[in-house]
Each structure stands twice: as C-alpha cells, then as structure tokens.
C-alpha cells in the first residue's frame, strides 16, 4: 500500500520545493491546489503575500441543544501559513468594517481598520478568530503555524508522502517506524471504501478510519489539509485513529468536516498531539478523544467542534488512563463539552491536567469544564488551571449518575478535583433556548442568568469529594459557596 501511494505522488515532490513562498524567512505561504473552491468572504495577506482562504462547513448559526445539528450549516473561512517571527496580517472584507473582535482576547491583539481593510500584528505562531461587524458565526480563522523541522524525504521508504496537490484517499494504515506526511499545499479528499471496510475497535466493528496508526514510533504530520466532506452524513468514520500504538506523533495538519471522532487515541502509550486544527459540524464530530491511554500530551491546537473538543474516556478491559495533559489550546464548542472527562468511565482515570487554554465560545447544552461520570470507576487527581473562557452557559460540573451512556450497575467516585485560576463570562441569554438535564433521558431546563456551577454525587458510597475552587472568577466576581449548586453527596468542598 505504501509503495503504491508513493509512486502515485512522487511527481509532486519537485513542486513541493516551489510550492511555498518566503519573505526573509519570516513566513511560508502554501499555494492552494487547482480545483479546490476557495472562500470569497475574505482576502488575506501576510507580509503582503496573498494567502489562500479555504472554506469548510460549520454548525447552524443559532446554537441548537440537540444530539445532532438541524441539517443546515454555514461556512467558515480559513487562512493558514507558517511564521517564525512577528508578521503583519491584512484582511480585505466585502463590506465596510465597523467593528472587529479578535479572539482569544488573551492574545492581546489590537487591530486597526479603515474602510474595508483590517490590519494587525501577529507576534508568534497561534490560531486566532476574526469576527467582523458582530458576525461570530461565519468568521475568519487565521491559523499561524511554526516553521516545520525535520521534513521527511519523499524517497524515504518508511514515509507515505503526499506532496502539494489534490489526492483522493480512502484508507492508509501504517505500523512500526512509519510516517504519513502531508506537505504544505497537499489537499486530501477522503472517501469511502467498497466491500471490506471495517475494523474492530474495543470489541466492535467500525467503519475503517481514513488513517490508522498502529505499532511503535508512528506519526502523521505536515501542513496539508484533510477534508472528509466527501463522506456521506450516514457514514461515521474516524479521521486519524491511533490504536494500540506506542510513541505516537500527530502534528501540524488541518482537518475539515470530520464525519465522526476526529482523533481517537485508544489503548496507546506516549502520544503527542501538537498544532492540530479541527473544524467540524456533524454530530459526534469530536476533536481529540483519549481513551484507555497513558502519557498523552495535547498542545497548541485549535478545535471548533460540534461535539466534545478534548475528552477523556476509559473502557472496560482496555486499560486505565493516567497522566494526560492538555495545554495551550484554543477551543470553540457548539454543543457539548470543551475540556472534559466522561461520559464512559469503566477503568480508573487519574492525573489529568487541563492547563493554559482559551475557550472562545461554549454555547451548547453541556458544560465547558466537566468531570462526567456515568459508570463505576474512580476518577481522581484532576486539575483545570489557568483557563480563560470568553462565554459559557454552563461553566463547571462534577457529576455522578445514570444516563443513556451508562453500562454498569455500580456507580463510581470523583475525588481530588481542582479548579484554579479560571476566568469566565456567562454567555448572553436567549430565553427561547433550553438545555438538557442529565439523566437516563434528556430533560429540558431553562438557561439561567449566570453560567452554572454544579457538583452532584450519587449516594453516601459514591461521592464527589475534595473539590477545590482556587481563584475562580465568573462575570468579574470570585466564586463562593453560594454560587455552587451541590447535593448532600458532595464532601470537603474548599474555596481559596
């Protein structure tokens, strides 16, 4: 399989050498392949170089608290390039600019604008959202990557190399010591397979993922784009599955329109997910799902997801979860959770850190920061530290109970959870919207004036205990005991 793919695409290797432009080695811009429809909503330049602006689907413009999107959608514009120094970005808009918001606010970017043009300075790699004239939905994503290092050779027999241009891909599977590389300017259109197209994952047959990473010392990386929009809505396929693998690197690529979980990491050890960009709109189009794995680092990513963005799970018989770290990510979630554990927790989960992340929008039915336990294991030593949330309807939750996801008769435990140095603003209230209470069936609730904080244990034997709130700020006020809804099965709640 690898040799066949390489032979088909080696013709692109020469064009790769000329497929990007550099300005004094400050910036690299990769040309868009012919035949890819680009966005007409914005024109973008970096250091006076034209940047291709792609477009991809996003959820409906109005947050809808359902299991699946209503079927309508919008389009977001996406411009991507590499930088290794401070650069000037300029944007031409189709109408006169009256206001500009650049998120995350923590980046401290102050734009200037006149007429139809916006200009701002980008001092280092990072991923920003530009909202013009109050239009938050069909916004512009600026994805600024760092320069690549150790770019593999197309002639390396252990590399599946996709050069600049359009490639039609169904499935690529790699194992020990192998790499899938997507050069800048590569655009992979993902399709489906006829006939035998399933793989066993956690004892169940699933549609064959587009990419499968197995074995030791495996990676997928580059600056190319993976587009799953060609996969029908009734087919659910993982995009990149790391499965029973060790020493895994997933770095740099951009993923449009995932049809199911985008990057499931299942039964793996020592995994690094770095600078991945995900924009999805379909139901169950999660970002990174970490299950039954250990020593996992997720960092420097951008995720605009309809379902969970970064979530940790464990399944019976597939191993415990230990030492998972998520940091320096920008998250936009439109239905479920931004940074969370659960719902499925059948094996113990411990030593989890969510750190130094920005949640720029969280407007769905679920909770931005959550420990969500529906089964029988122990969740312990979890920290949410230095998290900045631009807007949320439900802010924090630690919850034990039974839901539609429950598989076990026995309930579990949640202990030693810290929420530290968190700043958040409540989302604007739309009284026509409702959310859903937890339980075996979804039950409606009315959105409150302030983002909710709840702690719910199950009974005297299955507690939420030893929860610390240390400098948690909601709507400019420090969170105190009276701001937290809890039941009698919550013990040792502390405020610092």
TrEMBL record:
Source domain of life: Bacteria
InterPro entries: Glyco_hydro_28, Pectin_lyas_fold, Pectin_lyase_fold/virulence
Matches recorded under Pfam families: Glyco_hydro_28
Keywords per UniProt: Carbohydrate metabolism, Glycoprotein, Glycosidase, Hydrolase, Polysaccharide degradation, Repeat
Family membership noted in the UniProt record: Belongs to the glycosyl hydrolase 28 family.
Function per UniProt: Pectinolytic enzyme involved in the degradation of xylogalacturonan (xga), a galacturonan backbone heavily substituted with xylose, and which is one important component of the hairy regions of pectin. Activity requires a galacturonic acid backbone substituted with xylose.
Name of the protein described by the UniProt record: Right-handed parallel beta-helix repeat-containing protein
Annotated organism of origin: Mariniflexile gromovii
């Amino acid at each position: 399989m690898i040799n066949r793919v390489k032979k088909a695409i080696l013709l692109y290797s020469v064009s790769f050498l000329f497929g990007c432009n550099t300005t004094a080695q400050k910036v690299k811009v990769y040309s868009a392949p012919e035949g890819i429809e680009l966005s007409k909503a914005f024109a973008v330049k970096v250091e006076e170089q034209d940047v291709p602006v792609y477009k991809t689907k996003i959820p409906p413009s109005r947050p809808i608290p359902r299991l699946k999107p209503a079927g309508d959608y919008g389009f977001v514009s996406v411009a991507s390039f590499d930088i290794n120094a401070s650069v000037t970005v300029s944007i031409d808009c189709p109408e006169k600019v009256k206001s500009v918001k650049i998120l995350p606010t923590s980046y401290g970017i102050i734009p200037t604008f006149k007429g139809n043009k916006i200009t701002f300075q980008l001092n280092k790699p990072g991923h920003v959202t530009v909202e013009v004239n109050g239009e938050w939905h069909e916004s512009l994503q600026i994805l600024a990557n760092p320069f690549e290092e150790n770019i593999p050779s197309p002639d390396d027999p252990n590399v599946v190399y996709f050069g600049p241009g359009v490639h039609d891909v169904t499935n690529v599977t790699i194992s020990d010591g192998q790499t899938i590389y997507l050069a800048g300017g590569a655009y992979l259109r993902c399709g489906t397979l006829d006939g035998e197209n399933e793989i066993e994952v956690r004892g169940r047959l699933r549609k064959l993922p587009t990419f499968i990473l197995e074995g030791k010392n495996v990676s997928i990386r580059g600056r190319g784009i993976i587009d799953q929009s060609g996969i029908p809505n009734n087919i659910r396929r993982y995009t990149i599955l790391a499965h029973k693998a060790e020493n895994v690197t997933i770095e740099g690529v951009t993923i449009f329109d995932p049809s199911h979980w985008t990057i499931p990491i299942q039964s793996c050890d020592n995994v690094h997910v770095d600078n991945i960009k995900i924009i999805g709109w379909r139901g169950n189009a999660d970002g990174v799902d970490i299950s039954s794995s250990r020593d996992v680092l997720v960092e420097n990513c951008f995720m605009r997801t309809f379902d969970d963005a970064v979530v940790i799970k464990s399944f019976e018989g597939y191993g415990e979860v230990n030492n998972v770290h998520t940091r320096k990510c920008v998250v936009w979630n439109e239905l479920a959770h931004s940074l969370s554990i659960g719902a499925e927790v059948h094996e113990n989960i411990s030593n989890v850190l969510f750190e130094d992340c920005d949640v720029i929008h969280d407007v769905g039915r679920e909770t931005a920061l959550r420990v969500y336990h529906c089964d029988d294991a122990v969740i312990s030593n979890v920290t949410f530290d230095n998290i900045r949330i631009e807007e949320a309807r439900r802010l924090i939750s630690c919850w034990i109970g039974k839901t539609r996801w429950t598989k076990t008769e026995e309930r579990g435990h949640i202990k030693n959870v810290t929420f530290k140095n968190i700043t958040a603003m409540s989302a604007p209230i739309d009284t026509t919207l409702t959310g859903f209470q937890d339980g075996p069936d979804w039950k409606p609730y009315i959105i409150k004036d302030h983002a909710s904080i709840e702690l719910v244990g199950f009974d005297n034997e299955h507690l939420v205990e030893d929860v610390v709130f240390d400098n948690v700020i909601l709507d400019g006020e420090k969170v105190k005991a009276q701001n937290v809804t809890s039941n009698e099965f919550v013990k040792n709640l502390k405020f610092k």
